[in-house]
Amino acid sequence: MSSVRIREAIETDVIDIQLCAREAYLKYVQRMDREPAPMNADFSAQIARGYVSVATSPSGLVGYVVAYPEGTQFMLENVAVLPGCSGQGIGKLLIEHVENTAKLAGYKTVELYTNEAMTENITMYPKLGYVEVGRKSDSGFNRVFFSKQL
Question: Whose CA is closest to 55, among 27, 30, 89?
Answer without folding.
Answer: 89
